[in-house]
Amino acid sequence: MQTNAAHQQPAHAFDVVIVGAGFSGMYMLHKLRGMGLSARVIEAGSAVGGTWYWNRYPGARVDIQSLEYSFSFSPELEQEWHWSERYAPQAELFAYAEHIADRFELRRDISFNTRVTAAHYQEATGRWAVSTDGGETLDARYFILATGCLSVPTDVTFPGIESFKGKVYRTSRWPHEGVDFTGQRVGIIGTGSSAIQSIPIIAEQAAKLTVFQRTPNYSMPANNGPIPEEDLAARAADPRGYRANSKNTVTGFQNEARDTVLATRTPEDVAHAELERRWRWGGFRILGTFGDQGIDPAANKVVADFVADKIRETVKDPKTAELLIPKDHYFGTKRPCVDTGYYATYNRDNVELVDLRAAPIVTFNEAGIATTAQQYDFDAVVLATGFDAMTGAVDRIDIRGRGGVTMKSAWADGPHTYLGLMVAGFPNMFMITGPGSPSVLTNMLNSIEQHVEWVADCLTWLGERQQASIEASPEAQAAWDAHVEEAAAPTLLPSANSWYMGANVPGKPRRFMPYAGGLNTYTEICNQVAAKGYEGFIVKSGDTVLSDSHEFTSHPPIPDHLPAELLQLIAKQMEHPAPPLTAAAG
């Protein structure tokens, strides 16, 4: 007979231990408190905020509109917080995170400046032993990873970098006091999101800025500014309806998606006019222009050619413009960037673009960087080399489940999850926006809310059954893995060497990690799983099996309301996926 664990808890024992005090960790803590559960959050930083605590590089800001990239769980929070811009800057997002911590008095349950080094499942007690770098071991019934999808830098290095006499900065770990590049010769390696946001700012300060680019990315203008009054009025008139419209979408944000309009069946002048309207509106609005642009290479080319022409119109030097136009991946298959004046920055006399495909870096030296073509001397170099996405933070913790099986071995050929929420063989361990969930393909705040609320409901259900344990069945996990692949198969997404695929980390298994079926479809699936008594999960109370559902009922990944022509195209793409786009074909 099992005794209630609450009466046996040793010191440092909690119902739940959470890793990470970003938005997901804070909301999870808030929900657990409301359920009467004890929780401790372990946070490596000195403050809350996660992504917006760490990423303080020049120009850092969100790429989803602020009104939607914010929490909806508290009407009072919505009423009292006012965003200054359509796309909030890092400082404002960090202030928002701190306001949430203050408003809900979260800090008393957060251990800052502390890292989780190990988490081992104890089969004898059905609890987790969570160790920290401070030598503390916490005992918890439930272990929740709220570590973020883009929280661990790749830490790319270069030969001879230790010999460079100047300063080296990483965008992912920017000094909190800021950096003044006035009058300096600066090099920046990378043209991903953090580089695209920071390059215009650094160029305004530096005497000379040299940008080293290996692979260009697509970027759209933010056209940032104050939030339009009509948007504020729309939310004020119907706050719940506004939020529902945001969440009930594929991407978790409103972008006027027209999934029944085909680019290949739209007259050229009409297509151009619609693309022009969305370009002027700014941000990700262009991603929703046509229903076939993410599936059909010919339709994708309509949008890609439009964006390429915009780059050529902006950048005065034709050679530089061509270097900035992606030719090795389809539009939208890598997460596009949202910028303020990025392309126009290359018109400045003090900015130079170096093509690393034509002249790769050979080594750093005392003075700067030597490529196969020439030497570049710098006072400072900025490394904007990206993140070990989705799995990086999990891989860095020694996690062991049932039978001492390590997470590293369970994910040796890539991440396997059920719903992106749990991993077979790791009882009572949840992930927030983990691989296999929509996460990075969506507005993260809406995905976070959906995940946290699902986990909270699950824990309530388990509590009603006397602290039962839950774990994904291997069969359901395998079925979900197949469903994730099936959802991505008709799209062009797997064709790109993107961080969605783990392609930016040497040796990382190639697997399309997020769920491409849409936040709305995913939410419906999760709700159905719960309604069926947590289908696909094995639930126990002591030695008593309450539920032993090994199966997951697969759902069609394709909406049935699409035009017949698009459904035929999808079917064809699933049988014969589009090959990767090559520079020659671009």
Task: Kindly describe this structure.
Helix content is 30%, strand content 16%. The protein contains 17 helices and 21 strands. Strands 1, 2, 3, 4, 5, 6, 17 and 18 form an 8-stranded mixed beta sheet that branches. Strands 7-16-8-9-12 form a 5-stranded parallel beta sheet, with helices on one face. Strands 13-14-15 form a 3-stranded antiparallel beta sheet, with no helix packed on it. A hairpin with a 4-residue loop joins strand 5 and strand 6. The longest helix has 20 residues, at 444-463. The model is unreliable at 1-9 (pLDDT under 50).
Brief summary of the model shown:
The chain has helices at about 25-35, 50-55, 75-80, 90-105, 195-205, 230-235, 240-245, 270-280, 295-315, 320-325, 340-345, 390-395, 405-410, 445-465, 475-490, 520-530, 565-575; strands at about 15-20, 40, 110, 115-120, 125-130, 135-145, 165-170, 185-190, 210-215, 220, 335-340, 350-355, 360-365, 370, 375, 380-385, 400, 430, 470, 535-540, 545-550. The chain is an alpha/beta fold and about 575 residues long. Strands 1, 2, 3, 4, 5, 6, 17 and 18 form an eight-stranded mixed sheet that branches.
